[in-house]
Amino acid sequence: MKKVQHYINGQFIDSVSNEFFDNYNPATNELISKVALGREDEVNAAVQAAKNALTGEWGQMKLNDRIAMMYEIANEIDRRFDDFLEAEALDTGKPYSIARHIDIPRGAANFKVFADTMKAVADEAYQANTPDGKKMFNYSVRKPKGVIAVISPWNLPLLLMTWKVGPAMACGNSVVVKPSQVTPTTTSLLGEVMSKVGVPAGAYNVVQGKGSITGNLLTAHKDIDAITFTGETVTGEMIMKACSVGVRDVSLELGGKNPAIVFADCDMQKAVFETTRSCFSNSGQVCLGTERVYVQREIFDEFVAKLKESASKLKLGIQHDESSDMGPLVSATHRDKVLEYYKKAEAEGANVVLGGGVPKMSGNMKDGYWVEPTIWTGLPETATVVKEEVFGPCCHVSVFDTEEEVIKMANDTKYGLASTIFTENLTKAHRVASQIDSGIVWINSWFLRDLRTPFGGMKGSGIGREGGHHSLEFYTELKNVCIKM
Ligand SMILES: O=C(O)C(=O)/C=C/C=C/O
């Protein structure tokens, strides 16, 4: 049976306690590996290794050499593309067709973009007169923050882990990664990449385990200088509390209840295509995904019919079947949670336009964690599935009449991560975009990413922006030096 180990101080090791937990293929519920369960010994060893690295070869590495190493890591990820593809698909259940175009390419891209950033970033400097008629010169310098804890989620494991490890290491920090217990493997593969490239031991560490055990130990560890987390808002709040001890910085990309606003003057084909993607890609397990769709009355019936037709064409299938459009949910626990929401929607009076249950899967998929792509209409804005993040392949479609009304409805949420707007009137698009309370707005598109842009949520969707030079705000300490001339 395959083992997924910790990667600490450049070595793959089991837990001192020799404890393992089971990891399953979500598409078939087959046991695929035994994963080391990290406790105090492993967390302490990883943090110590990360701390030592800062004063050793890694911390003393020249910026140009570190930048070159970032590109080498990216190239090695590309060289091992198929290994990452197979591992990620097996852990998450997602089709190769998604992981091949989204998850794995971003593994390399997330190192390259921050190597580019470190090459191009300028330091601030000012000249000014002093009260005694002389001059002063001020300049700022950035230093790594230190040991960064990276707590990464299970929906886009490699993408979201490297979205944090890339900038953290490019800025000279060392990292301790705690991946989700249901998607451990690509963090371990990245350890193989680090060893192959010759990254100094301790710069990149992985402690496998469970959030309630390993994650809590890591976030509470006094030698962690900052924590970056992507995941549910309730966990984000707990991590933020842990960061208050020792006044440590935190970067949070949390949940969302993202609206799509479809005006009557939209390009219908584009609106249906992009909304199908944003609702059902990755089985709806994308924090940027759409779960609330608002359609202007004139085109409501047509849009709902076309969205239903588009979603009903999605093929649910096994990872390596190239014709699969959608996989299962990531775990039996998450599947049960989503099905509870499906039941709740019906109990609250939803009109089930499509899905609402469990699909009949054949062969070895019959025991997988499958749910049907689902579309509801007819619920009030106060309904549970209109208010709470389901994180599954489902959406509720509501009708609206005026621009003012839909902006109010779209903003009536505790979240503020992403939104999409469909209209061919770009004056209107920019006007509405400026009034939507979300960190990211896509117009006539979804999940188009320029990695230099500020990325993150407001309100209950998180704190901070990552992307390009914005990431340096979190991954470095900024120091000002003043000279009297
Ligand atoms: O595209 C990104 O950089 C990113 O962070 C995606 C997040 C998706 C969350 O589910």
UniProtKB/TrEMBL annotation:
Keywords of this entry: NAD, Oxidoreductase
Classification via SUPFAM superfamilies: ALDH-like (SSF53720)
Coiled coil region boundaries: none
GO molecular function: oxidoreductase activity, acting on the aldehyde or oxo group of donors, NAD or NADP as acceptor
The Aldehyde dehydrogenase domain, residue ranges: 13-481
Catalytic site: 253
InterPro entries named in the record: Ald_DH/histidinol_DH, Ald_DH_C, Ald_DH_CS_CYS, Ald_DH_CS_GLU, Ald_DH_N, Aldehyde_DH_dom, OHmuconic_semiald_DH
UniProt xrefs under Pfam families: Aldedh
Cited Gene3D superfamilies: Aldehyde Dehydrogenase, Chain A, domain 1, Aldehyde Dehydrogenase, Chain A, domain 2
Similarity-based family: Belongs to the aldehyde dehydrogenase family.
PANTHER family: 2-AMINOMUCONIC SEMIALDEHYDE DEHYDROGENASE (PTHR43720)
Full protein name: 2-hydroxymuconic semialdehyde dehydrogenase
The organism of origin for this protein: Halarcobacter anaerophilus
